[in-house]
TrEMBL record:
This is Protein O-mannosyl-transferase 2. Keywords: Endoplasmic reticulum, Glycosyltransferase, Membrane, Repeat, Transferase, Transmembrane, Transmembrane helix. Its main location: endoplasmic reticulum. Rt/POMT1 and tw/POMT2 function as a protein O-mannosyltransferase in association with each other to generate and maintain normal muscle development. GO terms for molecular function: dolichyl-phosphate-mannose-protein mannosyltransferase activity. It comes from Araneus ventricosus. Its EC number is 2.4.1.109. Residues 2-58, 71-127, 132-188 form the MIR domain. GO terms for cellular component: endoplasmic reticulum membrane. It is found in: Endoplasmic reticulum membrane. It is an enzyme of class 2 (transferase). PROSITE patterns: MIR (PS50919). It comes from the Eukaryota. The chain crosses the membrane at residues 260-282, 303-321, 327-348, 368-390.
Amino acid sequence: MPRDAAYGAIVSLKNYRTGGGYLHSHWHLYPEDIGARQQQVTAYSHKDENNKWMIKKFDSEHDLSSNNTPVELVMNGDLIRLEHVVTRRNLHSHKEVAPITKRHQQVTCYGENGIGDANDVWKIEIIGEDRRTPISTVTSKFRLIHYLTGCALHSHSKQLPKWGYEQMEITCNPNLRDSNNFWNVEDNHFPKLPNVSFDFYAPSFLERFLESHAVMFQGNSGLKPKEGEITSRPWQWPINLRGQFFSGQQLRIYLLGNPIIWWGNLILLQIFFILKLVFSVLEQRGLQVSPLLKDLNNKTINASFWLFLGWALHYLPFFAMSRVLYFHHYFPALIFNSMLSAVIINYLMNVFHHFLPDSLAKLIQHLILGLTIACVVYSFILFSSLAYGMESSAASKSSTSRIKWLDSWEF
């Protein structure tokens, strides 16, 4: 691609925000009750022939791609028109209300064979540049200001209805400071200028890393529940308030946490907090304990802290998410909580050796371990039908009703 944009070049413009779409148009018109019934302009997330625009002077119709025409670069402050290559209509705005964002003006494509009117004229403003500098491919960040009304070409994540093919809305924003008004030239085709290596445009590793994560965060936040879909909130997950139902023809499957493990994890998590508090008080007061017990306490708290941190990092961020959430999102945090439970159980079994005779301590240790394993195995057998499939017969419903410990469980 050429280093700079010139008049007559075929370009694709991309909104500068992370995950921004390409400036796009197609033959379809806005519906009759949506502003002026002119050609739709949208933002589209994928590369497409309908993303291509020709940069033209605001007051000339000369063939700028001709070999006889001298090359003239597009400069900061220039007045231009953008002609949609496929439909040969110009990017246009007027004082009609935008389809969704009613505070903004509608943006359309207007004219025939590249000839429109004064509402097709836009002024280029490169961000951070006061002097007459050319528009650089990829690297220049600029605004397109509508010359007659003073608003800025704007894109955001709001989707148009089905008549707009659920593509993103393009408007003309009176607020010139909005960061969604920024654009850059993504593709630039102009045979009269030499191409430069793509290495020139290549971002650094850190830039790629930050952008990829920003795109993932943005994509996640945009996920919304489908109509009739059952979702859940993060506070419901640790207490196993409700599961997730999977319907079937003959067998019904209900995704539910093993309540013995789920609620046991919660209890042992509270025990960790109590132990942490007790050990902190003992340390502050300078009470002496045996070196072996002190070493056991320190190992337990250190291991438990890192597992608690893993649980918190995999669970608490969901409270800040606006995207659709499901019960299974808690499973990674559950693994850390279960490992934390194992550490606390191990501590409780070992601590008896410091206060009781070995024979009695071993007996209690075996009782705790045996009771824990028995509860886990029994609860697995008891609730296994939820995972392996429940028949829809009346007898099956009667047998599963006895394991419906909470009314919020919907099987």
